[in-house]
Amino acid sequence: MPKTKKPQRRPGRPATIDEVRRLLAATGKGPAGLRNAAFISVCFGSGLRCAEALSLMPRDVDRRPDGGILLRVLCGKGNKSRTVALVPEFFGPIQRWIDQRRSHGITDRSPLICGITTSAKKNVMGGSRNTLGRPITHESMRLTIARLASKAGINQRIHIHGFRHGHATALAESGVELRAISAQLGHSNFNTTSLYLAKINPTEQIFAVSKVGIAKPT
Questions:
Q1: Distance (Å, rounded) from C-alpha 162 to C-alpha 11?
Q2: Does 78 map to a domain?
Q3: Number of separate domains in the chain
Q4: Is residue 148 part of a domain?
Q5: How far apart are CA 201 and CA 218, in angstroms?
Q6: pLDDT digits (tens, 9 = 90+) for 37-63
Q7: Residue 167: which domain range?
Q8: Which pTM was predicted?
Q9: What is the mean pLDDT of residues 154-172?
Q10: Which of 31, 33, 88, 103 satisfies CB 3.0 to 4.6 Å to 27 for a cystine?
């Protein structure tokens, strides 16, 4: 039997802060929009992986007295736990969604990012269509982000892991030390973070090339 060729993986591209703001503006003000805005804010504002963001519980969002916001990841990649900081700008959408959840009767026993549909109808497999308070899949959020990117008029490919790339890039460009970036991303060593940033952030190369003089043709 012939081997099936694995689909070619396209290189990751970091989402920019401008793109994220446009996505947030495109989410809308309904329950689904607030939920999606909270998801985008978690991913870009903290650099969490998609699975980590979808596994967060409301109790894992910790607003400190000094104004800082921490997110507790209890089961990250490699079954490791860690605490990450959230960029303060992105706390508002998360808080608005938490407030909206409560008005819909979603308890804190449901994941932070959860379903919102209420229905007594059965699906084609005989199961319930009611998703209120239930976990959401990576695939569902991937399709949602793609739809929002189209709605926002973003021509570049936007993918969920690109939010993590964008967060790491923003930290590096802001002068954050490698140690802090590594801890934020949940990497086990600095070399992994160095390779990660080298792969996704071409800023230094662009700057270097811009300084090279090109001789005029004779």
A1: 10
A2: yes
A3: 1
A4: yes
A5: 36
A6: 999 999 999 999 999 999 999 999 999
A7: 17-120+127-200
A8: 0.82
A9: 91
A10: 33
